[in-house]
Amino acid sequence: MKDKSKFKKIVGMENLSEIIFLKDGRILLKPDNSNLPFKIINAEKNVFLAEKYDWNLPFYIDKQGELYFNLKKYFYPDYKKQEGFKNIVFQDSLSKKSEEVKNLNDSIGLKIWQDYEVKLMKPYGLAPCGNTIVSTDQCDFFEVRNNTLVVRQDERFKIDFLKPKKDIPKFDDDVLIAWNNGKLPNPVYLAYYQINTIKFKCDDMTYPQTVFIDGKTYLYSSSLGLYQLL
Most buried of 25, 26, 33, 128, CB within 10 angstroms? Predict the structure, then answer.
């Protein structure tokens, strides 16, 4: 991986929590704290968007590439055109209503809260989903409906404009090289991967994958970052 004749570093993981690949070949850089901007770049590091984000609000890229964040809609493809956009996060609204009725009689407060939940969701074609502990998948909802970004789940981040990544095959068995000490010692292995004629090694927790951008092959690891194969 350190051989610069075979791997060209594009983006490292410094100050990033995730690198996300979009269908059009652009790359979303998700920061690891709210003081840093989200960025959308291409493989040549040209920047299309760089803005800080209120992490309490929903962040969404739909199937057409339109971007919704900070209560705005950014229009694909260059994101220069933007307009204010309504968001509703049901959990936030329901939590606020719970605070309003907490001093009422339990049965009265619950009835007011349940009626409010039905009224809140009805304009968006949704209904209370019952036992969320058992059926969380059926309750999750995150899309644009009635010109509103509607969210009914804890996660505030979703992208429907993803480019798939591929796992890289190994050409040999992993080799035990060390033990990490702790309450329970953990083994550390060296893993051997091959992409076409290129063979390389890294620890078994790196989990490298390939992604194809503009006809070129790139290697991505959540611990190392993004590299172009030369």
Answer: 26
229 close to 198: Cβ distance less than 8 angstroms? yes
Q: Which residues contact 40 (CB under 8 A, 6 or more apart)?
A: 22, 26, 27, 28, 29, 47, 48, 49, 50, 67, 79
Find how far residue 101's CA is from the centre of its chain: 35
Q: What's the pLDDT score for residue 150?
A: 96
Per-residue pLDDT tens digits for 112-171: 989 999 999 999 999 888 655 555 666 889 999 999 999 998 899 999 999 999 999 999
What is d(CA 85, CA 49) in angstroms, rounded to the nearest whole number? 18
Three-state DSSP state, 214: coil
User: 45: phi > 0 → left, psi -120 to 50 → alpha, else beta; which?
Assistant: left
Judge whether 90 and 156 are in contact, CB under 8 Å: no
Whole-number pLDDT of residue 131: 57
Q: Which helix (H) or strand (E) holds 106?
A: helix 106-121
Q: What is the model's pTM?
A: 0.85
Q: Tell me the pLDDT band of 27, cut-offs 50, 70 and 90.
A: very high
* CA distances in angstroms from 97 to 14, 91, 94, 104, 177, listed in the order given: 40, 10, 5, 12, 56
What single DSSP character describes residue 113?
H
